[in-house]
């Protein structure tokens, strides 16, 4: 009897231990279920805010991008102080662009900077800036499409990437430059200001200082703004990044017509002039985060003047 009683007591202890273990397992499982959403939220919050809201590391291809970036502190030039994570190619007090600097002097400085950048990485193609603003960025181009989507000027990984010329485009004819939209107002996010008519009216010109692949010299091209488009790359049928451009020529009749149709359909603001056969365009493309996934803001400028080795070519047409 005594042995049988001990066996029963041991069985009870085993059952109690099993019950406690099962209870603990259930409690822990419940905590995991309850806290998982919070953990996920905290993870995403840290990821997003640590990266200034930049989600570009999810972008996989050029056609998904059309958006782009901050030239991060990895792109800073310590000897010149000209690179800032918020405004790109400016010095500490924005003096390079806005304070007491004539346009000719600024262009000379930009040419000097282009030379120094070219010495860092031969993939540097030029510098694009909008007069009377803090928008001024150097741009890259690689034989590998989208190479600089998530790389800095040194080829190191960077969530912010570096502005770059799209595959199939060159510097001497039609140009398409991608850049990440950061926090709605940094890097190419500054382009969202062009949705406002007052800003559009005050910033009609853009300057592109670049190494020409034709004459192997530094050229300076001036463009006049044509339109601001906002379109959905998955739904709308204007594939501005994939139109089989001839690298050495301007728009032909068909492409000029396609551009003009796009301006009528998706143009937010326009100068009222149509693009013509032979026109050469520069396009800046970024995500239109104010409208949602798949939307791109595309600003189109028409080439007006080329300054090449001291000579001037005027592309302005009488309309």
Task: Describe the protein's topology.
Elements: H1 2-50, H2 62-65, E1 83-84, E2 88-89, H3 103-120, E3 124-129, E4 136-140, E5 164-165, E6 175-178, E7 181-182, E8 186-187, H4 197-202, E9 205-211, E10 218-232, H5 253-266, E11 267-270, E12 281-287, E13 295-308, E14 311-314
Parallel strand pairs: 6-12
Antiparallel strand pairs: 1-2, 3-4, 3-9, 5-6, 7-8, 9-10, 10-11, 10-13, 12-13, 13-14
* β-strand number: 14
Task: Give, in order, the helices and strands.
Answer: HHEEHEEEEEEHEEHEEEE
What kind of assembly state do the chains in view correspond to?
single chain
Radius of gyration (CA) equals 27 Å
Spans where pLDDT lies below 50 across 5 or more residues: 1-14, 35-96
Helicity, in percent?
25-40%
CATH superfamily caption: Sortase
Q: Which word captures the global form?
A: globular
Strand-pairing-aware structural class: alpha+beta
Q: DSSP strand (E) fraction?
A: 15-25%
Number of helices: 5
What is the distance, rounded to the nearest whole angstrom, between the alpha carbons of the first and last residues? 115 Å
The averaged pLDDT comes out at: 75
CATH classification, class level: Mainly Beta
- Biggest pleated-sheet summary: 10 strands, mixed
